[in-house]
Design goal:
By secondary structure, the chain is an alpha/beta fold. It has helices at 3-14, 30-39, 62-73, 78-89, 103-109, 111-121, 140-145, 163-167, 190-201, 217-226, 234-241, 246-262; strands at residues 18-24, 47-51, 97-101, 125-128, 149-150, 152-154, 174-177, 208-211, 229-232. It contains 12 helices and 9 strands. The relative contact order is 0.17.
Length: 263
């Protein structure tokens, strides 16, 4: 059982939905992002998504794109991102960390080297948005064999013909993208998302967490009522981009987490 599996089992026993928060590693600086990361569990975060900066983040809107650019400009790399996870693990050995990003930096490091380094750093799962199920031999299957969850995205366009392929080697949880578009854009209908989550859950026992378009505690509560968890990224990252303090960012995260847990 991975930390992700254990966390969902714990939440289910408590009758709670999960709150998942995303931050970009190295934004606006290594030290600031590490301080935020260390404060997330106390703010109520159940699972941390740690963004890996990349030059061409095709699934991300301007907020996450700019965060990645800021991080890259400070010299953030895949190795430094893993080092950040290692620092976090010195104080917290239970909160799951999911590394979210794109395949190119991993390919450049070499899959075997990356998996070994990620395991050593305490990474529990991967969301690699530009690797479709047809490419599972590249990273998904080796990661699963090493004991890491490989979390797949499902979207409003993932119909019943496509869904079995998406679920095939997925583990940990399903990340349901609530809107058709990029991160930080639009907002989703709870009714429509609830129907889609129910459809997906007919085909899998994995938890389904909903992300994209969740910006407020009320949004988080609404989505957590119809799913196993709510994911917030751009709304948090935008506060860091605006120069808000670590304390203020974590206070906002605590409000979001309270909303999700209230569901």
């Amino acid at each position: 059982m991975t930390r992700i599996d254990a966390k969902f089992a714990e939440l289910k026993a408590a009758g709670k939905s999960a709150f998942v928060s995303y931050i970009m590693a190295g934004d606006p600086s290594y030290d600031t992002s590490l301080a935020v990361m260390k404060g997330l569990p106390a703010a109520g975060v159940d699972i941390i998504e740690l963004g890996l900066p990349f030059t061409d983040p095709m699934a991300d809107g301007s907020t996450i794109q700019l965060a990645g650019q800021r991080a890259l400009e400070t010299g953030m790399t895949l190795n430094k991102t893993l080092a950040m996870a290692s620092e976090f693990r010195k104080e917290d050995n239970t909160t799951p960390i999911v590394l979210m990003g794109y395949y190119n930096p991993i390919y450049s490091m070499g899959v075997d080297n990356f998996i070994a380094a990620a395991k050593d750093a305490g990474i529990d799962g991967l969301i690699i948005v530009d690797l479709p199920p047809e490419e599972d031999e590249e990273l998904c299957i080796p990661a699963n064999a090493a004991g890491m969850n490989f979390i797949r995205l499902a979207t409003p366009t993932t119909d019943n013909r496509r869904l079995p392929k998406v679920l095939e080697n997925t583990s940990g949880f399903i990340y349901y993208v609530a809107i058709t578009g990029i991160t930080g854009s639009g907002s989703a209908s709870t009714e429509k998302v609830g129907a889609e989550v129910a459809r997906i859950k007919q085909s899998t026992d994995l938890p389904v967490c909903v992300g994209f378009g969740i910006k407020t505690p009320s949004d988080a509560e609404g989505m957590a009522k119809v799913a196993d968890g709510a994911v917030v990224g751009s709304a948090i990252v935008s506060k860091l981009g605006a120069g808000e303090s670590v304390e203020d960012v974590l206070a906002f995260v605590a409000e979001l987490a309270e909303g999700a847990h209230r569901a």
